[in-house]
Amino acid sequence: MKILLEKDAYLRTTYRLAHEIIEQNPQLDDVILVGIQKKGYPLAKQLQDHIFQFSGSMIPCYSFAIGSFRDDEKRNAHETNEPFDVHNKTVILVDDVLFTGRSVRAAIDGMMSLGRPQAIRLAAMVDRGHRELPIKPDYVGKNIPSSSKQRVLVDPIGMTINLLED
Questions:
Q1: Which of 120, 141, 146, 151 could form a disulfide with 13 if both were Cys (CB 3.0 to 4.6 A apart)?
Q2: 63-115 confidence digits (pLDDT tens)
Q3: d(CA 159, CA 49)
Q4: What secondary structure does DSSP assign to 15-68, as a single string?
Q5: Where are the domains of the chain?
Q6: Regarding the domain delimited by 2-165, which CATH topology (the fold level of the hierarchy) does it fall under?
């Protein structure tokens, strides 16, 4: 295992992401954060805290299970989500690692099933490439080129990013 980002650099990266969200969304009253379960939600909570710290605005933050919206072997129709309002909101989907884009596609399908958002944006702590779908993040913590045999693990509790060889 190789450590790519330690705590100080991790925090600087999440602070920058929070600042970018604030700068690009002058009406924070219309913004919600939606963390893709399970790994995107802790990052979304960190961003929520940072945004409050920097702007004084406490924007809503929700966890969203995407299993029932997936089109692959990870499909899980037994997951449920608490309903929340997306109508006329700017939804910022938050995920730890953007890889093929399939999780994000499932999350977008899920958001559309809840209503009609004003906009959907994507924040990812790590973009590692290898996209199978035409999905591009609006907010990126780090671009980390990797082979498809490697795994990138974001640990929001330990505030590190690690690279694993399979």
A1: 141
A2: 999 998 988 766 665 666 888 999 999 999 999 999 999 999 999 999 999 99
A3: 15
A4: HHHHHHHHHH-S-GGGEEEEEETTTHHHHHHHHHHHHHHHHS----EEEE--GG
A5: 2-165
A6: Rossmann fold (3.40.50)
